[in-house]
Amino acid sequence: MYAIKQIDPTDWQSVSTLAQFYADLATNPYCTNDKGFSHIRTKSHAITHAYIQPNHPEIIKWLVFDIDDPQALFAYHDNNLPRPQIIIKNPENGHAHYAYRLTTPVGNWRKSSQKAMRYFASVQKALRLALGADKSYGGNLVKNPCHTSHEVYLTGSKPSYTLAELAENLDLELYQAQEPANDEGYGRNYSVFQHVRPHGYALASAPYSEIVRQLQPIAEQYNQRFDVPLFPNELKHIVRSIARYCVRKDFTASHKTWSELQSHRSKIRWGDSTDKQKQALEMYQNGVKKTVISKELGVTTKTLTRWGLRKMKK
Q1: Model confidence over 232-258: pLDDT tens digits?
Q2: How many H helices and E strands in the chain?
Q3: Rounded CA gap, 83 and 76, in Å?
Q4: Can you name the residues that pair with 151 across neighbouring β-strands?
């Protein structure tokens, strides 16, 4: 807490942490001076606004949190948590946004494994809970630390954190076994990706532009389920990422594995003479994960291990 220092954002270019924040922005981020409406501008223009989109639609470099507490400035210290690189405080009520910079940005949803995304989402959720931050805050816009309408503080932290470093004093066990929360934080991006991608697989033989055309309304409709929907450009990048995957040359093998999984599910749903152990072995040989097999067959992962799946190679 004693390293915390208020700075004048007027000359933000000379402050290395704020200059890094600016460098990390998307080329054309959303921005606004009124939280009720936002628009896309070049980042040189966007940086003059009170609120700004902190992350590129496909890359997360900053974890941001909204703490609605008059003592928000000291939340990290009071809870023995890592110091955020930047704290942006409302001078009227003391509420603040925390910004943590990631050493290794989290890439787009297609290139990140489900395991990696679950870990990222569990760290984000556990840190939010530990800070007492607002669950409904989606991270779309952050108080701009380069704008004079806010009080801006640096904490003397290291330049960035790995996810493991952020998780050192957090209890992740409760969250790692769960899917990322679909209605909060970055779980929304993951949820949209997971919902839309099977529709893209069914269109794999179509041209890229046609896949995008058909997936976009599916993504837009699903996005409406969130209290704080994703920005249109975030949806666009998710849809285009899926479409690029669908038209790549080696997609046939991936589609074959996915189709085989659907076939296994159909057999299980409508009945099949093959016993569960044989079905489990076949599914595992086809690349289906043990957790999925366990759910589909209604058996525990320990049972699958006894059946020899641990010794099998995909």
Answers
A1: 888 888 898 888 888 874 555 555 565
A2: 13, 9
A3: 6
A4: 89
Over residues 178-223, the pLDDT tens digits come to 444 555 566 777 788 888 988 888 888 888 999 999 999 999 988 8
- Residue of 278, 247, 243 lying closest to 264 (CA atoms): 278
The fold of 187-247 is Endonuclease III; domain 1 (1.10.340)
**How many Å apart are CA 314 and CA 306, to the nearest integer?**
17
Cα 4 versus chain centre, distance: 28
* Domain assignments of the chain as residue spans, ordered by start: 5-176, 187-247, 252-311
Structure token pair of residue 173: 């066990």
Residue 241 exposure: Cα atoms within 13 Å on the Cβ side: 23
* CA–CA separation, 150 and 129 (whole Å): 24
- According to DSSP H, which parts of 59-202 are helical? 75-78, 114-131, 163-166, 173-176, 187-201
